[in-house]
Amino acid sequence: MRYRKGKCDLMYVIEGLLFLSSWVMVVNGSIHEYKDEAFIPRFNSFFFHGGSEGLYASKVQDSPLLVSDDSNNNNNKPINGKSFIRFESIIFRRTKEAANKQNEMQQSTGIVEAIILEVKDRNEIGGSHLNSDAICCTPALAKDGSCKVGEVIIHQDPENPGWPKRIQTSFEGNNEEANMVFHNVQINKTGMYYLYFMFCNPELKGTLISGRTVWRNPEGYLPGKMAPLMTFYGLMSLAYLILGLLWFLRFVQHWKDIIQLHYHITAVIGLGMCEMALWYFEYANFNATGSRPMGITMWAVTFSAIKKTVSRLLLLVVSMGYGVVRPTLGGITSKVLLLGVVYFLASEALELVEHLGNINDFSGKARIFLVLPVALLDSCFIVWIFSSLSKTLEKLQVRRSLAKLELYRKFTNSLAVSVLLSVAWIGYELYFNASDPLSELWRRAWIIPAFWTLLAYLLLWVICILWAPSNNPTRYAYSGEALDDEEEGLSLTGSSVIVGGDLSKLDRKERKASITADHVFGLGEVVLEEDKRE
Question: What are the residue boundaries of the GOST seven transmembrane domain, all occurrences included (predicted)?
Answer without folding.
Answer: 228-473
